[in-house]
Fold each of these.
Amino acid sequence: MAALLLLPLLLLPLLLLRKLHLWPRLRWLAADLAFAVRALRCKRALRARALAAAAADPRGPEGGCSLAWRLAQLAGQRPAHIFLIHGARRFSYAEAERESNRAARAFLRARGWDAELGGGAEDERAAAPLAPGATVALLLPACPEFLWLWFGLAKAGLRTAFVPAALRRGPLLHCLRNCGARALVLAPEFLESLEPDLPALRAMGLRLWAAGPETHSAGISDLLAEASAEVDEPVPGYLSAPQSIMDTCLYIFTSGTTGLPKAARISHLKILQCQAFYQLCGAHQEDVIYLALPLYHMSGSLLGIVGCLGIGATVVLKSKFSAGQFWEDCQQHRVTVFQYIGELCRYLVNQPPSKAERGHKVRLAVGSGLRPDTWERFVRRFGPLQVLETYGLTEGNVATFNYTGQLGAVGRASWLYKHVFPFSLIRYDVTTGEPIRDAQGHCVATCPGEPGLLVAPVSQQSPFLGYAGGPELGRGKLLKDVFRPGDVFFNTGDLLVCDDQGFLRFHDRTGDTFRWKGENVATTEVAEALESLDFLQEVNVYGVTVPGHEGRAGMAALVLRPPHSLDLVQLYTHVSENLPPYAWPRFLRLQESLATTETFKQQKVRMTKEGFDPSTLSDPLYVLDQAGGAYLPLTPARYSALLAGDLRI
C-alpha cells in the first residue's frame, strides 16, 4: 500500500518534465554525460602528452613534434604490434619508426645536414638545400611510402603539402604555388601523365623526387633509394619541435568543388587533437581499422592515420576501394572498424549478396555523409553494428559526433556537448547569403526544427588558421559581432537543423540551397525523397538557371537500380505526395553513373553549369509539365517552348 501511495510522487517529476517539454532532451542525458566525460578525459590525456613532450630531452625523438614523439612512443611501448597492412605487406610500429627515420635523414641531408648525419648517400646534384620549415609536396597514392615520407618530413622539421593525386596542368601548378612548395615527391606511375608538366615544374625551381625507381626523366632522383641508404636511428627531437603549437605543419587542399583548391593550414595543435578521434568514437588499441579513403584529404590522413596512432591500433590501408572485395578483406584481416564516406556504404548495399558479408567482425562504422536511406539498409543488411556519423571540416574548428546512433543525425546539441565543443546555429538568409541580424546587429539563434548556419567561436583552443596564400582567401569564413561586440565565429558554410530532442541533422550547403517560387529548396531533402523510390539507386539534386524565371529550378540527375527502368508516372506521383510543389524537380537527367570528386562528393557545380539543353547533352532529359501533371521527354521543341514561355514549369 505504501508503495502505491509513493507511485504518484515518483511519477510527478516525469510528468512535469513532459509538461515543460524537457523530457525529449533529458532522456539522452546519460549518453550526453558519458560522451562529455570521455571527451574531457581525451583532452586531459592529450595535454599530458604535450607536456611530456615539452619536458623531454630535445635530443631524443620524444622531444619532437606530436607525430614524431607519438610514433616513437608506440615503437617503444608496442614495437611488434602491427600498425599497417597494405596488400601482402605488414609493418609493425617499430618498423614504421625505422622507415620514417630513414626518410627523415634523407630529407635532412637535402636540408644540408650532411655533417651532422654522418654516413649515407652522397648527394652530387647542385640542388639548393631545403630551408628549415620549407614545404615539400607529396603527389602519391595511398600506400605505406606516403606515410613514411609524411612522418619523415615532420621529423625533419619540414612542412608537408598533400596534393590531390588527380591534379595535373594548371590546377597542379596552382596548388604548388599556393602552398609555396620547394620540392615535389611524385609516384613513378604518375610520370607519364605528368610529362607535359615537367618543364613548368622545373621552371618553378622545384626539387623533384620520385618515390621509386625512375629512369626516363632527367633531374628526378629516387627518394626511396636515398632513404634506404640512410641509417634508421632516431633524429633529434629539437629539429621538429614547433616554436608554437599553432605553427603550420601541413597543408591539405580543399576539394575545389566551387573553384581551384585552397591550401588549408593544419597546425600542430590540430594534429594533436586528431589523435583523439578514434578514442572519442569508442575504438581501442586492439581494433583493426579499414581505411580506403585518399590520404591527401583530412578523413584519410588526420582522422584515419593520426586517429589510429592516437589509440595505437592497426590500420588496413587500401589504395582503392572495392565494394566487391570489401567483405573478403574484412574477413581476412579480422577488421573491427570501418571508416566510411557515405557513398562507400551506398556502393556496398548495392552489391549482390555474398557469403563474406556474414560472420564478419566489424562492430563499428565511423564516417560522414551517410544518408538515412542508405544507413537503414546498411545496418539491416550487415548488422549488428554501430554507425557513428560525424561532422567536420578540414579547416574548421568544430566537430560533432552522433554517439547515440540516432538514424540520420550527425551529432547532438546538448548543453554538455556544447560545453566541451561550443557551437551555435544562427538564422541565415539564402537570398543574400548572409546571417540574419537583429536591430542591435547581432545574429539570431534558431528555434528547434529551423535550419540554421553552423558557427563556432574562434579561440586559442579552437582557432581558424585560414589558408596559404593570404588572408583574403579566408574572407567570409569569419563572422564578427555574432552574439556580442567583438566576438569572432568560424562560418562552416553548412546549414543544420536541431530537433526538439537535441539531435543535429545536416540540411544543406549554403551554396547548394537555392530559391524557387520565393521558397528555399534544400537539395538534400529532395534527394532523400527521391532515393526512397525502389528503382532509383543514386540521386544528385541541384539548381539550374531558367531564362525568364527568378531563382533556380530544381534538377535531379538519376541513376537507375538494375534491373529497374524509369517509371515517370510513379516518380511524379511520389514527388507530388512527398514534397511541396516548389521543391518538385523541374528537370530530370538520366545517367549511367554520377560524377563525383576524389572524395566521392557529388559534382553539383559542374552539373549546374551543364544545364538542361538537349542539343548539348547526350543523356535522356525530362521536364515537368505542371499543367499536365507529368514528366515528359525534353525534346528540342519543348526546350524552345520553355525558353519562349509557352511551357509552364
Amino acid sequence: MCHAALLKASAFALKRRFRSIPGRPLSGNPIAEPKAFLIPSARRWNSLIRAHVDSGHFHTALSLFSAMREGGARPDHYTFPLVNRAVSSLASRIDVGEAIHCLAIKAGFAGDVYFCNTMMEAYVRNGGVSTARQVFDEMCLRDVVSWTSLISGYAHVGDFDEAFDLLHRMRAEGLEPSPVTLAVLLRACCAAEDVVGGCQLHGFVIKMGFGGHELVQNSILTMFSKLSCMEVVQKLFDDTQNRSVASWNILVSMYSSMGDVSGAIDSFEKMKTEVSPSSETLTSLLSALAKSEDLRLGKKAHCHAVKAGQVDAVMHASLVDFYAKCGELEFAVQLYEEAQTKSSTLWCIMMWGFLQNGEFLETVRLFQRMQEAGFMPGKDALRVLVMACSHLGVLMWGKGIHGYSIRNNTLEAGGSDDTALGTSVLNMYAKCGSIDFARRCFDRIAEKDIVAWTSMVEGYAVHGLGMEALDLFCRMKEEGVRPNSVTFLSLLSACSHSGLLREGCELFDCMVTRYCISPEISHYTCLVDLLGRSGRLGEALDVITGMIVEPDGRIWGALLASCRTHSDSVLGNYAAKKLFDLEPDNMGYQVVLSNIFAGDQMWEETERTRKSMHREELRKKPGWSCVQVKGMSDVFVAGDKSHPRVGKIYEVLGCLARQSEESREC
C-alpha cells in the first residue's frame, strides 16, 4: 500500500479499528496499569507497552497505544516499532498493521529505517509480503535487517527464487548478509528440498567466515538433517567445536526421525559426557524409543526427566505417547489423568494410544469426554475417531463424523491434513461396506497423494472389484502419480480376489522391471495366493522356493489354503509341515490341514491331526462381533457370558434356533 493511500484513512476508522481489539487492561494483570493513563511522557508509555509485549499481552499493548494517543501523548521513535512487535504476534490482523503504518507516516516516521524494518516484519507475519515489498522499495536507506526481513518474507511464502535474487541484489549494493540472513536462506533450502543449493550456500558460508557461528552452524546441521544427509550431518557435527545443547538436539532428533534408534541412543549417551540433556533432547529420544518399543530405556529417560525437573507439558505428552506405543496402556492412562491441564494435543495422543492398542470403544468415549471438556476437535482427532469407527464397523457413527467435518469445512481447505482426514473417511466407508460412498469421498479430495490413491485401490480390492482397481491405477499413472510398494500390494490383492491371473502377473513384473521396486514377503504372498486360487499350485510353490526373501507363515498359509480349495493333500501336508516349524502354536493351520485330509476322505490322518491338537492343548482364538442398536455398540465373543443381559440374549438365540429348525422341517 502506497503512502498516499494510507494517508487517506480517516481518524474515525483508525479509532474504530483500535477499539475493536479485545483485551483492554483488566484488573489482575500481572503488570501494573491503573495510573498509566495519567502519565503524559512517551517514555513512560513506551515502558508500559514494552512490558505488555514482552509478557505476551499483545492486545493489551495495542489498547495502551490507543489510550496513549487519546491522552495526548505523542509517539516517538521507539513507540511504533514496539507496537509493530505486537501486531507481528497477532494472527490475520493486517488491517491493524495498515492503521499503524498510516499513523507512523502522518507522524513523520516514513523514512525511519528502524520503523520500516519492524513494519515489514508485521506485514510479513500477517501474510502481506507484497505490501512489505512496497515498504521496502520506498525506503531511501536500507540496512542488513531490511534485506533480511524481506528475504524471510519470501522464504516464508515459498518464493525461494525471489529470496535468493534478493541476496544477489543485496550484495550488489555493497551489503553482505549477516548470520541471521544466512540462517533464513538455509531454512529456505531445507523447505525447498534443494540439496544442491544447500551445498552451495554451505560453501558460501565458509567463504564468508561464518562457519564457526553457532546460529549458522546449527542451521546447516538442521538443513542437512531435514534433507536426510545423515553422513554429512555426522561429519559436520564431529568437526564442530564447542557443541551446544541445540547442536546435540539436532543430532538426536535426526536419528530419531530417520528411525535409527541405536544412533539416537548413542548420540544421547555421548551428549551426557559434554552437556546436560534438555527436555527437547529427551522428547526426541522418547520418540525413537517408542518406535523400537524399548520400555527399559524409556523408563530410564522418564526417571532422568523427573530427577532433572524437565517434565513440562510437551514432555508429559511424549511420555503418554511412549507408554501407549509400548503397550503399557494402563500406565499411559494414569499419566494422562495426572496432567493438570489437558491440551488438545494430549487428548489426541491418548486417543491414538487407545486406537493403537485396539481399544476402539475407549477411543470414542475419550472423544466424548474431550467434547464435554469444551475442546473443539481438530483434524487429527477426527481422523482418529474415523479410524476407530472403521475398526468397529459402525457406519452410522462414521457418517456422523463425516457430516460434522463437512459442516465445519474441515475437508475443504485442500492441505495435507485435509487429505489425510479425507483418506481416513474413504477408508471407513470402504471397510464398512459402502464402496460407492468411498469413491465419492475420494473424488472430493482436492490434493490426492499416493496414500489416497492406494487407499481407494485397496477399497476396491477388499470388495473384489479388481477391474475397477486396475482402471484407477491407469488413471493414477495418467495424472503422474508414482506408485509405491503398498500400491502394488493392494493391486495384487485386488487381482487375487477377482481371479485376474494374467493382470496380476503383469503387475508383479511391472513393479520389478519398470518401477524398480524390490518385492517384499507381502508381494510374494499375494502372488502365491493369486496362483493358488487359479489352481497353479506347482507354480506357487516355485515362487516360494525361488524368492530372495525368507518365507514366513503367511506365505505357507496362503499355499495351504489353496491346497484345501483344490484338494491337494500331498502339497498341503508339505506346506503344513513348513508352517508347524514356523508357528507351532497356531491352531488355525492345524484345522485347515485336518479339513484337507477330511475332504480327501483320509480319515486316519484327520484323526491323527485332531488328536495332536488336543494333546498339545491348542486353542483357537475366538472371533468377535459388534452389534449396533440405537446408536450403542455391543461386542460379543463366541461363548461369551459377560454381557449384563446374557440370559435374555441366549433365550432369543434359542428361540431363533428352534424357529430355524422348524422351518427346515416344513
Amino acid sequence: MGIPGMSNQNNGQQWLGITEPISLAGPTEEDVNKTHELEKYLQGVGLYESQQEAVGREEVLGRLDQIVKIWVKTISRAKGFNEQLVHEANAKIFTFGSYRLGVHGPGADIDTLCVGPRHATREEDFFGELQKMLSEMDEVTELHPVPDAHVPVMKFKFNGVSVDLLYARLALWVIPEDLDVSQESILQNVDEQTVLSLNGCRVTDQVLRLVPNIQSFRTTLRFMRFWAKRRGVYSNVAGFLGGINLALLVGRICQLYPNALPNMLVSRFFRVYTQWRWPNPVMLCAIEEGSLGLSVWDPRRNPKDRYHLMPIITPAYPCMNSTYNVTTSTLRIMSEEFKRGSEICEAMEASKDDWDTLFEPYPFFEAYKNYLQIDITAQNPDDLRQWKGWVESRLRQLTLKIERYTYGMLQCHPYPGEFSDKSRSFHHCYFMGLQRKQGVPVNEGEQFDIRLTVDEFKHSVNAYTLWKPGMDIHVSHVKRRNIPNFIFPGGVRPSFSSKVTGENKKSLKSRVSGQSQAEKSQGGKAAVLGADDERKRKRLENNNNLRVSKSFVSSSPPNKEVHEDVTPISATSSCSMKLDDSEVNSMGAQKSETPCLKSVDKVPSGDSETNGSAMGNQQVTAPDISNNKEEERLAIEQIMSGPYDAHQALAEEPDEVEEDLGYKNQVEDNGGSVKNNSDSSNSKFAVVEELVIPKETVCSTHSFSNGGLEELEVNLLFWLKNLDDFHRHILQ
C-alpha cells in the first residue's frame, strides 16, 4: 500500500504531500545563522521547559500508566473475571496534542488518552472507579470530571502537572502493550466518543509521519504558536487557529519546502497563506474513504461542508475539517495577519526589521472604537466553570448572527480570551471589536440595530440544559474610552496614544487613506482625514461616532424562574449603534510589493533529525524556483488545484446544519423559544437605515462602576410600538 501521504512523480521519485514540493532549495549560511537567532529568541521568551520539568512530566505519565493498569485489573476482578483474565487485563496511556508534537512550553497541560478494554465502561468505570481512585490520592488535586462534554474528559493536576485525560473503550477484551492506534481497524465497533477521543492521537501521530524533517517542523510550529498568541489569533473556539490547526498549516509548508530551515519556513508560511485562495482546503495527504463507513470531509457530497470558509483537513481517517469555527470576520482578521507577517519577513530579509516587530502584541483595545462586552456570572466556581464552557461554545454564533443580519456590513473581532473583575464573585467577561465593513460607501444616518440579534443569541445561550439559578449573561455596547479598567494589567488604563507603535501608526494611516479613497470612488460621503483635519477627526469621534439606543429588556431562560433584575449583570442588551464615516477601527497593514526571493543553493538540510519513514536522504529533482517570485507564485496557485478546488463556501450557514462541537450533546430542541434565523421578517431587523428608535425614547440613564459602562433604559411599550411600525415599513 505504501506510505500514507507519499506521492509519486513520473520518474518514480517520491515526495510527501498531495503535490510535489515548490522548492528543494536547502539553507544558505545566512539561513543557518538566522535560524540560530530564531531559536535563541524563542528560548529567551521562555518557550522551552527546563530539564527538571521535562523529567517531572515523564514521571507523571509513568505513574498514570501504572494507575490505569491497576484500575482495569480492579474492575475486571469486581466484574467476576477469573484470575487469568484479571492478569491479562490491561489499559494503556497515550499522549497527543502539543506534548506529543514536542512543542509544549513550561506549565502546559498534557493531553492524554486512556485506552481500555470493552468491559471497562466510560460511565461506571472511568468516571466511577478511576475517578474515585484519583480523588483518594494525595498527588492528585483540582480533579474536575466533565462526563457530559462532547468529548468526555477528566481534568486534574498530578504532582502539580495539569493533565487532561480522555477515555477510549475499544472492542477488545485485552489491550496489547504494543497497540498501534493509527490502524483503521481500531475504530471498529466503538462509540462516537471513542472515535473522537482516539482522533487526537491518530491525527498527531499522522502529522509527525507526514513532515520531512521533524526538528524543523517543531521549531517552526513553536514559532507560529507564539506568533498567533501574540497577535490574538490563537483560539479555535473563538474562530481562530488552535494548536492542531497551526500544526497542519506548518506541516504543509514543510512538505512544500522539505529542505528549508525554520527561518525560511516561517517566511514561506506567511507568503503561501497570504496568497492562498480560501476555501481551497489545506491537506497533508489525500482524503481516504476508509472501510468503516464513517463520514469524511467532502463538500461535493456533504452540504454542511460547503459552508466551511477555511478548511484545514486532518490527515487521519475519518478526515475532518479542524477549523469549523472560522467565520467571515475571523478569516478576514487572520488573512490580514498573514499579510502583515509576510511584509515583515520581507523587510527582515532586507535587514529593515526584526523579530520583535513580528511578535508585537495586537493592540485589541486600541484598534476599535466600539465593542460588545459579554458578562457572565454564576453562584459558585463549579457552576461558573460549566457556564463558561457553554457560553464560549456559543460565542461563535453571536458573530455569525451579526454578520448575517447586517449582511456583512458590521464586522466582528472576538477577543480570544476572557477577563475577570476581581471585585465581583464568579465573573468572566468577553469582548468583541466592532467596525463597519471597509471600502463601502457610508449612507447618511445609517445605523446598525442588533438588539434582536443579541436577544436571540441570549435566548439560545439560556437554553442550556444544565442551567442553574445564578447563571446569568449580560451583553452591552461599550465605547473604547469606557473599557473597564480591570482588563488592563494592574487595573491601570494605559495611554493609548503612546502605546501605538510606529508600525501601527503607519498601518492605521494607510487604512484610513485606503478606506477614504474607496468611499470617494463609490460616491460615498466619507471625510478625508489628514494631519490638518485632526481637530475635526477628534470632534467626530467624540460627538458623532456612535449613537446608542439601548434596550433594557430582560431575557431569562425558557421555562425557568424569572428573577428580578437588580444588578448590571442581567440578560440585557444595549446594541443599537451608529457608526459615522470617519470611523477607523483596524490596525491591519496595507499591501506592499514583495521583493524577489534570494537565490539559494540546493544542499541537504542541516538538521540532524528527519523522518526516516518519509524521504530520508532521497532527493526529489523538482525545479528550484525559490529565486523567481513569479514562478513561485504560480507554483502556489498550482498546489491549490485538485478535486476540491470547485468548492465555493456559501455565504451563510443555515441553522439546520449548525453544530457546537464542544457541547453538541447538551443542546436541547428549543422549539419556538428561539427565533428562526431564516425568517425573512426577523432578518430585516439587521440593518436599520431609515427607521431608528430615537434617542427620545430613553427615559433614564444608569451608570455603574465597571469602567463607565452605560445602560440606557428604553420604554418597553414604546419600543414594541416601533417594532410594529417597522414591520409595516418593511412589508410595504
